[in-house]
């Protein structure tokens, strides 16, 4: 029996990096996985890989800023499996850091739309289905940017991740009565394509990692392990909290 045996999970941003790893590991742990993204070719390849390994997964096109796309994805879960047990709000974007006065309103809205509005819409659409099924677990992927190390953070990204942190607490307190848990995960720097693109030179990478006591970026699997814990029944008494996985960065 896997840690997520027969759970029905919906994961956003699942075509690559952490989202794809979550889809693979969730399926390996026995979950029935629906995952979405806007990178359809990559998502379909991940679906084929999971199925070839004996897992159960369905890729769906999902623009997290579209309420219609969210409803289509959740409706698919209900039509296929009759319920939704787990929602992982994983999709996010990061833009280069510049001074606040140089950031455009359009760039701000883009980041907030994907990172914060996307979490709101997924949660909004999932709650009625989870309530009808007797409960569920929502895990929102935030960042240490939403908590600290603010002198080095990109403002729009940090604001969006801070919004996720507080929204997760509000969701947890308002829906504990429905047996719906909600928690946020706050990774430090993680070795993904998005992270490497933000720190493209050895000098920039070394400077960023100098603010991590362990002096390395986290591995995707190290973050996914925490996500699985919060998604599973192992964390049945955990809600409204932050799981920080950052190599000690927030202790500096």
- How would you spell out the order of helices and strands? EHEHEHEHEHEHHHE
Q: Uncertain runs with pLDDT below 50, 5 residues or more?
A: none
* Helicity level: 40-55%
Rg, rounded, reads 17 Å
Number of helices: 8
Shape: globular
- The strand line-up of the biggest sheet is 3-2-1-4-5-6-7
Largest beta-sheet details: 7 strands, parallel
- Gap from first CA to last CA: 40 Å
Strand residue percentage: 15-25%
**Helical/strand content category:** alpha/beta
Give the rounded overall mean pLDDT: 96
Number of strands: 7
Which helices and strands appear, and what pairs or packs with what?
Layout (H helix, E strand, L loop, with lengths): L7 E5 L4 H12 L3 E6 L2 H13 L3 E6 L5 H15 L4 E4 L15 H28 L3 E6 L13 H21 L4 E8 L5 H6 L3 H8 L10 H12 L10 E4 L7
Parallel strand pairs: 1-2, 1-4, 2-3, 4-5, 5-6, 6-7
Helix pairs in contact: 1-2, 1-8, 3-4, 4-5
Verbal overview:
By secondary structure, the protein is α/β, with parallel strands linked by helices. 46% of the residues lie in helices and 15% in strands. It is built from 8 helices and 7 strands. Helix 5 links the parallel strand 5 and strand 6. The radius of gyration is 17 Å and the shape is globular.
């Amino acid at each position: 029996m896997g840690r997520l045996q027969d759970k029905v999970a919906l994961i956003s941003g699942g075509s690559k990096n952490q989202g794809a790893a979550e889809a693979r590991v969730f399926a390996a742990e026995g979950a029935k996985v629906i995952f979405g993204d806007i990178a359809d070719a990559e998502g379909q390849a991940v679906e084929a890989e999971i199925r070839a390994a004996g897992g159960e997964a369905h890729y769906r096109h999902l623009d997290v800023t579209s309420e219609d796309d969210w409803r289509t994805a959740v409706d698919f879960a209900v039509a296929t499996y009759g319920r939704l047990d787990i929602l992982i709000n994983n999709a996010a974007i990061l833009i280069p850091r510049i001074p606040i006065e140089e950031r455009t309103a359009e760039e701000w809205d883009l980041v907030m739309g994907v990172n914060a509005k996307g979490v709101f819409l997924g949660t909004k659409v999932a709650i009625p289905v989870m309530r009808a099924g007797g409960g569920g677990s929502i895990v929102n992927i935030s960042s240490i940017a939403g908590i600290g190390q603010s002198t080095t953070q990109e403002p729009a990204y940090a604001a969006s991740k801070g919004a996720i942190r507080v929204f997760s607490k509000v969701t947890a307190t308002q829906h504990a009565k429905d047996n719906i848990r909600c928690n946020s995960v706050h990774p430090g720097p993680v070795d993904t394509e998005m992270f490497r693109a933000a720190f493209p030179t050895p000098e920039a990478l070394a400077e960023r990692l100098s603010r991590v006591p362990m002096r390395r970026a986290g591995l995707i699997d190290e973050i996914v392990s925490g996500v699985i814990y919060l998604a599973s029944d192992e964390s049945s008494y955990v809600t409204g909290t932050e799981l920080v996985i950052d190599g000690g960065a927030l202790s500096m």
